[in-house]
Specification:
Elements: H1 14-26, H2 29-36, H3 40-54, E1 59-62, E2 65-68, H4 70-98, E3 101-108, H5 116-127, E4 130-137, H6 140-148, E5 154-158, E6 167-181, E7 191-192, E8 201-205, H7 210-222, E9 229-233, H8 237-245, E10 251-254, E11 265-281, H9 288-304
Parallel strand pairs: 3-4, 3-5, 7-11, 8-9
Antiparallel strand pairs: 1-2, 5-11, 6-10, 6-11
């Protein structure tokens, strides 16, 4: 006994659609076969089998060729739409596969106002306008955890070695700057040394990268036999800069941040200190758009010389 399920189901193949469309356009199985590059018998047989499956004729055959029936004209209309959708799907898949469209999710710990990262993103967007870029600010530990769980594609962090279960590559360095009021005596100097900061008061944000800046200050000033005065402030970067301008204390920042100016504040280079910045990503991440970004980053890093060999590299924790 048959329950009738699937009795009305017709098995269609893409070549059925191509053969019908070609035969309709050329009004001939022979000319359609020549245009497609198959034998005429193949087109004739496949279309006949399709008509048997459908239970209706799609073409009227005559000595001069073939003409669509009423059913054939309706079938052709849907077949063309279906082939168009399939063609668009194939092109879209190819675009995603090549990385020319898609999305990259970034973890950001450095300023985007200037520097290598800003230049990289501008160049990538110019070359890949159809790739959507999403940015997430956060602490390095948060970014690394998100990369391991594929919630981020890539993060740009200060590091000297790849975090566990991640790949990393050193791309650029940034110099370290002291942020101070423009009326401060040290503002007259083009470059500041650690000895100039021996008894100065510092302020840092409770938000990242404030804790890393705190540890960095303590580590380097302790070498001079001094426990620095570092106060945490529950403000973001912009308001921290305003507190510096009010004379509440000095702070440190990375080179990219100096692309943004704040009233009453100046930046002065901290002698001999640079931060190594790396790209960090999951080795199993097969996002083609990410691979294109990494390729561009490597090219730009090589052109920029990656790092200045005349300047020492920090081994302290992240700071931006």
């Amino acid at each position: 006994m048959c329950d009738g399920k699937g009795a009305d189901r017709v098995v269609l193949e893409l070549r059925h659609l191509r053969y019908v469309i070609a035969a309709a356009e050329h009004h001939s199985f022979r000319r359609a076969a020549s245009a497609i590059g198959v034998h005429q018998s193949a087109i004739s047989r496949r279309i006949r089998n399709l008509e048997d499956e459908l239970g209706t004729s799609l073409f009227n055959r005559h000595s001069g060729g073939v003409e669509l029936t009423y059913a054939g004209r309706n079938f052709l209309d849907h077949a063309r739409r279906a082939m168009g959708q399939i063609d668009r799907a194939a092109k879209l898949a190819d675009s995603f596969g090549s990385g020319s469209v898609g999305m990259i999710r970034f973890g950001i710990f450095s300023s985007l106002s200037s520097g290598f990262l800003a230049n990289l993103l501008r160049a990538y967007e110019h070359q890949n306008a159809s790739v959507r870029l999403e940015f997430v600010e956060g602490a390095p530990a948060e970014h690394i955890a998100a990369i391991r769980h594929y919630q981020l594609d890539i993060a740009f962090l200060t590091c000297t070695a790849a975090p566990p279960y991640c790949d990393s590559e050193h791309l650029w360095t940034e110099r370290v700057y002291v942020v101070l009021p423009e009326a401060d005596d040290l503002a007259r100097k083009a470059e500041i040394g650690w000895q100039d900061l021996y008894e100065r008061r510092f302020i840092v944000s409770r938000m990242d990268p404030g804790p890393e800046i705190h540890d960095y200050l303590v580590k380097h000033l302790a070498r001079l036999g001094h426990r620095p005065s570092v106060e945490y402030c529950a403000v973001g970067r912009d308001n921290l800069m305003q507190l510096v301008s009010f004379g509440k204390g000095l702070t440190l920042t990375s080179e990219a941040t100096t692309g943004t100016s704040f009233p009453g504040v100046v930046y002065r280079l901290l002698s001999g200190e640079v931060l190594p910045f790396c790209a960090v990503w999951a080795p199993q991440n097969d996002n083609p758009a990410l691979r294109r970004l990494l390729s561009l980053a490597r090219v730009m890093a090589r052109r920029a010389g990656r790092c200045d060999s005349t300047t020492s590299t920090l081994t302290a924790g992240p700071m931006a």
